[in-house]
Amino acid sequence: MAKVTVVGAGNVGATLAHVLAMRGTASEVVLVDVVEGMPQGKALDIRESAPLGDSDCRVTGTNDLEEGVAGAAVVVMTAGLARKPGMDRMDLLRKNADIVSGAMRAVKAKAPGAVVIMVTNPLDVMTFVALRATGFPRERVLGMAGVLDSARFRTFIAMELGVSVVDVSAMVLGGHGDTMVPLPRFSTVNGVPITELLPADAIERLGDRTRKGGGEIVALLKTGSAFYAPATSAAQMVDAVLADRGHLLPACVALEGEYGERDLCFGVPVIVGAGGMRRIVELRLTDQEKAMLRKSATEVRKGIDEVKSILG
Ligand code: TXD
User: Fold this and answer.
1) What is the rounded radius of gyration, in angstroms, for the C-alpha atoms of the chain?
2) Is there a single domain that holds both residue 256 and residue 266?
3) How far does the centroid of ligand 1 lie from the alpha carbon of residue 79, in Å?
4) Whether this model's pTM surpasses 0.85
5) Ligand 1 pocket test target in 6, 7, 12 with most atoms within 8 Å of CB
């Protein structure tokens, strides 16, 4: 069994540690954060829930990044700053790129064989930063966004049709933002495409709610953003790696010609197992689907160009 390190013990990181501890797929989970006492306190609280969850997972917390990541099989990166008053988008990008680069240098030094799962926003851009800072092969640097966006789409489809969410599978590709691309032709209820079950306007409405899914929760919460579904989505990716499951998931990976793109981290279907990505699955898309993906890729590329100008 393996060690999983979660960098950033905020809402997503701590919830992820709890989900992992309850599932028991990792023997050890380490929470790392810069706030003194906080990762230790949350880790102890989570560990004290283990007796009730039939789990022997050892959960600990630390402020020491290098010690925290040492020997980890999987490192999930959730650390980052939220935008503060007076900070513009580029300031925030610079700060988060610094945080991610710093953590990834520690991963490179202390956990050179790890699979990295990025969560920090802007997701596609930070996946690019992580890839560059670690120098890892692209198979071992994955971004979590598509699993969450697809889980949201699945939820809305099940709610609309009044069917079990367990029967619904969905595919959402592209960048993690307003231009993401829900794919109704590849979204099914027990194998039946939703295009057979719902009128086009309803599908459009559910796709649109999915695209705005993060914002809908931010508007309700007033402070902070979604974390239960994001953390559980990251846990699914961690489990796919630890248990070598071979899940076909949408994930953000570096493209080298697939989908007509290169030098870009972007959400596409991949098969995930031990060692990270086994391969990218190239879907045959309609012209309309291709155009939507291209538009999303253009958006993501802008962000990556910005971060390149910052990193030099
Ligand atoms: O789909 C997705 N990828 C996302 C991404 C879904 C939900 C959240 N998404 C993004 O994840 C979000 O926009 C943030 O960039 C991250 C984490 O979200 P969370 O809601 O957990 O943010 P918090 O609660 O503010 O937690 C961030 C923690 C906080 O405790 C900081 O003290 C810590 O990060 N932090 C650090 N930890 C370690 N090392 C460094 N340098 C550091 N800097 C800040």
Assistant:
1) 19
2) yes
3) 4
4) yes
5) 12
